[in-house]
Amino acid sequence: MKKIKLFITIFICRSLVVILHIFGFSANNLPGNFCIKFYRNILTDMHLPELIILITGTNGKTVSSISLTHILREKGLTVVNNNGGSNLNSGIISEFIKHSSLLGRIKADAAVLEVDEDATSNLCKEIHPDYLIVTNLYRDSISRNAHPEFVYDKLVQIPSDVKLILNADDMISGTLGSDQNEKIFFGAQAAPGRTDVAENIICDVKICPQCSMPITYEYIQYHHIGRAHCDHCGFIMPQADIYAEKIKLDPPTFLLNDRIREQNTVFEYKTKNLFEIYNILSIVALCLDLGYTLDFIKESLDTLKDVGGRYEETVVNDTQIISMVAKSQNPISCSQSFTKAKNTPGKKIIILAINDREYGMHSHHEDTSWFYDTDFEFLVSENVINYITVGPRAYDVALRLVLAGADPEKIKFSFEYTTDITNLVDYDAVKGGSIMFFFEVYFRKWSKKMKQALAEEGMKYENN
Fold first, then answer.
1. Which of 14, 132, 149, 166 has the fewest CB atoms in 10 Å of its CB?
2. Is the pTM of this model over 0.85?
3. In sequence order, which residues have a C-beta less than 8 Å from that of residue 3 and are 6 or more positions away?
4. Residues 6 or more apart in contact with residue 22 via CB below 8 angstroms
5. pLDDT tens readout for residues 179-229
6. Taking the alpha carbons of 234, 235, 238, 243 in that order, is the dihedral positive or negative?
7. Phi-psi region for residue 213, left (φ > 0), alpha (ψ -120 to 50) or beta?
8. 112-130 mean pLDDT
């Protein structure tokens, strides 16, 4: 009876996918929503891949998922992932259905799934993954997970048979799991210029997670990520098993050390952003535990060119065009993206397409308070030729820039999402420098056109 129900459900869902595609709609969630309503425990009845890896955390899920999927495929495995769809239960169920037989057998060796923090605990109980990577936990959008402790409370109920890959430098996510969970910790020694004072507006951990007395930082990498201890109760985070040292910004490299196997090698990171280093460390920690060699992991990451359009660099007319996601409503993600501007020398034009207003099918709640938790100060420099703020909230973004110290005379506006923004770019003035384009995650389709338009316009100047 169960097999018949499974067959009928998958057949209906597959039919829905075909119909949706015929009419030009995405099928990322509808099959999953159908199953949640009519066959809630479908995942427990399907034949799932032998290796299941979940990735969660406030930031870094998508890039880590793309990178890990690439490494597994380089090893010859067939992998199911949900990089192109939803990271909630409905999207994950839909993805499995797309890759299953009509009897519910998933046609893959492994599944790498980025999972929303809200859905992680229940999904772990349902499918019992082999691994769970938790990249970090920070404050998030006010409408969902404004405070990290609120998110933490949703994640504490993780089954004891799940092996955890945790951030030893994050006193929030790094304390997840019980004594029964196997754990591998990743972390990093202090980067150049790091002190015991946060350079960011926001630091979410100022008291001990164990006794609630003031915490003492040894160094802070960014926000609350770093090494700290409590002088009152003796609390300290575990030592990292996989850690980075000798971090350099130019060239952007670090020495990755594997304490467990006593080996090390030099890795590159593209964005000059410490955030990327921690993502790499989490992936390497898992792959080493799978038995992959450090050299193979490094070589595989070196061949990865596309991270879902979230970070791209190209040179046109002797000018760097850099595009990077700056996730709306998420002050930590935006601040870490803005670090790229801070660490990029030379003259710059900065384009900001981050808003809380409707774009396409995505409607936001129009709350701009998160701007004031975001480090717009990282964008302010005498080397900036112009700022171009985009969208219905262009004035709000401009106000935040002015409060951060930007010259109001340097700010230009485009209230529509159009490639005509290129007309506001002074290519002659920025030649030899950088055009930096920060865009909201839901704007990727438009941002792709925008990046192409910037490059094409730059080519015109190159040919003159």
1. 149
2. yes
3. 103
4. none
5. 999 999 999 999 999 999 989 999 999 999 999 999 999 999 999 999 999
6. negative
7. beta
8. 93
